[in-house]
């Protein structure tokens, strides 16, 4: 098969469409003939040499795929060869074939194409596990989503709205109207406005990390929950513990890729039970900005790093 390999740590130009050995499913795994792979910030970090894949994952980037099952590993039940699926994987998605743990596989939702389904597993699992499981968002609460125009952001806006929350998001002004259409009550242009001066949120989903920590705590209501899922603004900052105690607030940090397989399988079950019905009803949908042939992964990464996209970027495999 062919896969996108990383020639050396560096910019998008180091990505190469290369012939590599075919993978084979071990016990409890399925082999997927890839139709498309989602492009994520973690893939760019891996390309730069800053986010190595788990030890048991292929060295190729790509943490979510869609396609058709080609082969079942020993002991796999509930799936069949030829079935259209999407999956959360530890790595190796930028390829013609990818292996996924059976517990991290999802059926392609009704009303979604097999290609566009590649834009769902990572964002659905990330948003559900953090907003629902960790932060315990309740109807009537206010959810602040940073980076509303990203894949995670567009999904979080929709899911927050579907769960009965008032959703506020930060994004550049050019993305404002589309975010309002998705269900955001308010869009704050972070380039000209300090969100902490005008928002009080019960739950904050943050991709920035260090640079936003003080403002995020300022913006929390009493009993608020801040969940940090990215470090685009740095790893370090000072935290006023007195303010945190006075607000009886919680700061949590999570990653998805490095979690044990059992934890990821539990998240995927929750997504299938609670989120997939919303997708099939059209209440929440994958927002696809663009699709590139797999061999043009470098162009897809350039678009990702420009932050000009709205929603997900996909890489497709033609046969």
Would you mind describing this structure in some detail?
This protein has 2 domains: 2-119 and 280-316, Quinone Oxidoreductase, Chain A, domain 1 (Alpha-Beta Complex), CATH 3.90.180.10; 124-253, Rossmann fold (3-Layer(aba) Sandwich). It has helices at 41-48, 121-134, 151-162, 176-182, 213-219, 241-247, 261-280, 297-306, and strands at 2-6, 15-19, 29-39, 64-72, 84-88, 97-101, 105-107, 142-145, 166-170, 186-188, 201-206, 220-228, 250-253, 288-293, 312-316. It is built from 8 helices and 15 strands. Helix content is 27%, strand content 27%. The radius of gyration is 19 Å and the shape is globular. Helix 6 (241-247) links the parallel strand 12 and strand 13.
List keywords for this structure.
319 residues, alpha/beta, Quinone Oxidoreductase, Chain A, domain 1, Rossmann fold, 2 domains, 6-stranded parallel sheet, 8 helices, 15 strands
């Amino acid at each position: 098969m062919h896969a996108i390999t990383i020639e050396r740590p560096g910019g998008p130009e180091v990505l190469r469409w290369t012939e590599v050995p075919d993978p084979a499913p071990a016990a409890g795994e399925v082999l997927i003939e890839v139709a498309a792979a989602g492009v994520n910030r973690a893939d760019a970090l891996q390309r730069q040499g800053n986010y190595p894949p788990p030890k048991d994952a292929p060295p190729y980037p790509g943490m979510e795929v869609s396609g058709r099952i080609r082969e079942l590993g020993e002991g796999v039940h509930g799936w069949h060869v030829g079935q259209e699926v999407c999956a959360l994987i530890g790595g190796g998605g930028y390829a013609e074939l990818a292996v996924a743990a059976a517990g991290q596989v999802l059926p392609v939702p009704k009303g979604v194409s097999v290609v566009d389904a590649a834009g769902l597993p990572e964002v659905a699992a990330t948003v559900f596990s953090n907003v629902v499981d960790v932060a315990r968002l309740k109807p009537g609460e206010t959810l602040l989503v940073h980076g509303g125009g990203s894949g995670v952001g567009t999904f979080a806006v929709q899911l927050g709205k579907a769960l009965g929350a008032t959703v506020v998001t930060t994004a550049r002004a050019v993305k404002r109207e589309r975010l309002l259409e998705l269900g955001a009550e308010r869009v704050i242009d972070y380039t000209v406005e300090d969100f902490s001066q005008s928002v009080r949120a019960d739950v904050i989903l943050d991709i920035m990390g260090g640079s936003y920590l003080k403002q995020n705590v300022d913006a929390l209501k009493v009993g608020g929950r801040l969940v940090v899922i990215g470090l685009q603004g740095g790893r370090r900052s000072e935290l006023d513990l007195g303010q945190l105690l006075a607000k009886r607030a919680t700061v949590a940090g999570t990653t998805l890729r490095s979690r044990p397989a059992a934890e990821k399988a539990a998240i995927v079950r929750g997504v299938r039970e609670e989120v997939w019905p919303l997708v099939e009803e059209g209440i929440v949908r994958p927002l696809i900005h663009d699709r590139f042939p797999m061999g043009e992964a470098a162009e897809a990464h350039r678009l990702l790093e420009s932050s000009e996209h709205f929603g997900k970027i996909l890489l497709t495999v033609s046969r």
